[in-house]
Amino acid sequence: MVAIKAHQAQSFLNPPGPKVPAVLFYGTDAGLIFERAAKLAALVAARDSGEIIRLDDADLDADPDRLAIELQTIPMFGGSKVVRATAGRRINAAALQPLLEGGTLAATLIVEAGNLKPTDSMRGLFEKSAQ
User: Fold this and answer.
1) Owning domain of residue 85
2) What is the pLDDT of residues 40-69, one digit of tens each?
3) pTM: predicted TM-score of the whole model, two decimal places
4) Of 15, 47, 102, 112, which is the most buried if we count CB atoms within 10 A?
C-alpha cells in the first residue's frame, strides 16, 4: 500500500508506478484527486485488460459487504480489477484495515480522500504499510 501526497502524484503516474495492492490519494483539491485516481485506475486496468468499479458510502449502505467482496473476488474472465472508493462514513480506516492486512487482494484498491492530517487513521494505515 502507499499514500500519495499531492506533490508526488505526477511522478508516481508517469511512468506507471509499481504494482501495489492499495493506493490512497488525498489533498485539498478534490478535482485533482479525482483526476489522478482516474488516471491510475485506467493505467492499472489497461495493463491486464481489467475492469474499474467505483464504490462510495451509498453502495455500501445497500450492501455492506460489497467492498470486501469486490476486493477478494478474482475476475471471471481474467485480467485485473480496480476498485475506486471514496473515503467516507463507511469507507474508512477501520473498514479497510482488516481487508488490507488480511492477505493478498484480488483487486487494486484506489481510495480518494480529502485533506488528511498526519494523525488521521486512514493516512496512517497507508503510510505505515508502505514502509
Assistant:
1) 2-130
2) 898 888 776 778 999 999 999 999 899 999
3) 0.84
4) 112
